[in-house]
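Good morning,

Attaching, inline, the backbone tokens for the sequence recovery test we're adding to the shared suite. The designed sequence is right after.
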């Protein structure tokens, strides 16, 4: 099923913070029903919890952030599509970018006694309590595409990119485009998200190697195209004729910034250089049209790695603590030939 259609199906089925179970063709595994016959109460003894049914089918709960960007839609497609291909019993929740909905979903997965829980933490903090509940229930957690600020024993693995390296690479690309001098504005991702924190850190650290380059202003666009455009409009008003480059933590915000630059009568990628992160199809189209300069790839197609790690955990195997995704850097010069090969 095409990922846009799959995501459309998903969003029409999902209400705010509700669950979407049974992506796999087979019927979904529901939480084991409480036993109906009343066991004779053993004198003064705690009733034993219902035995988890022996089930060789992998049962996974995935607490997704939402649908804020093309990158996120591609990741969701990869999770749903891989689950369907592997016949995994997947219970999927879309949190509409609200941490409380992700926490609710994790608690539901625990009640459903899934084998493994995957979560893309919308922000880094606030997870310790619910992750401990999962650990006490014997259910391993896999962090996907964003980190959580918890002790390492509360999650089995992190599957995702090196965001600091992405930020460093973006700064090097911007320096090359500007001849090592100029003023940049920064569109940050969601405040508190590890992808935003680390992309900002990597970019700022690397910029320290270029004394004639500086960040004029930095503000969150929440990883969305609409907010990226809004913030760039404000930057263009506040710093007329002073902005040589825009660095966006994701391509969706860069595409919004490109709209704002054109509305201001300027040429994106010429008057103002455009460097962003993700590698979604839209930025390749913008580069091919001569409106963006560079995208640093951040691979969202994490479904295969995620379900492999989940199956390994179910089989009692150990998994690497950080399963890194490999990524490239793509520039305007090759965008036309790269575009047909892009999978998301
Ligand atoms: C990165 C991911 C980020 C993307 C954005 O792993 O968490 O979230 O870069 C997305 O496009 O919204």
């Amino acid at each position: 099923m095409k990922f846009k259609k799959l995501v459309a199906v998903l969003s029409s089925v999902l209400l705010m913070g509700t669950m979407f179970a049974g992506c796999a063709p087979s019927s979904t595994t529901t939480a084991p029903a409480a036993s109906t016959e009343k066991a004779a109460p053993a004198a003064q003894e705690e009733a034993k919890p219902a035995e988890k049914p022996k089930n060789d089918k992998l049962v996974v709960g995935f607490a997704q952030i939402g649908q804020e960007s093309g990158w996120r839609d591609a990741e969701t497609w990869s999770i749903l599509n891989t689950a369907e291909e592997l016949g995994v019993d997947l219970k999927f929740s879309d949190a509409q970018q609200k941490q409380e909905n992700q926490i609710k979903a994790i608690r539901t997965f625990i009640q459903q006694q899934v084998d493994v829980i995957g979560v893309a933490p919308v922000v880094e903090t606030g997870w310790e309590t619910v992750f401990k509940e999962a650990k006490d229930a014997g259910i391993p957690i896999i962090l996907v595409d964003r980190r959580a600020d918890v002790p390492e024993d509360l999650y089995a693995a992190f599957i995702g990119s090196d965001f600091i390296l992405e930020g460093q690479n973006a700064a090097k690309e911007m320096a090359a485009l500007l001849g090592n001098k100029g003023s940049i504005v920064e569109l940050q991702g969601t405040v508190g998200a590890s992808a935003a924190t680390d992309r900002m850190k990597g970019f700022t650290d690397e910029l320290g190697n270029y004394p004639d380059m500086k960040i004029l202003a930095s503000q969150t666009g929440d990883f969305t195209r609409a907010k990226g455009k809004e913030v760039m409009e404000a930057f263009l008003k506040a710093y007329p004729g002073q902005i040589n480059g825009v660095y966006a933590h994701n391509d969706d915000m860069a595409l919004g910034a490109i709209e704002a630059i054109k509305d201001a009568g300027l040429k994106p990628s010429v008057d103002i250089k455009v460097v962003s992160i993700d590698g979604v199809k839209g930025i390749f189209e913008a580069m091919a049209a001569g409106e963006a300069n560079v995208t640093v790839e951040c691979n969202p197609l994490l479904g295969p790695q995620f379900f492999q790690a989940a199956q390994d955990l179910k089989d009692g195997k150990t998994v690497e603590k950080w399963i890194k995704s490999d990524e490239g850097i793509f520039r305007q010069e090759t965008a036309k030939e790269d575009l047909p090969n892009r999978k998301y």
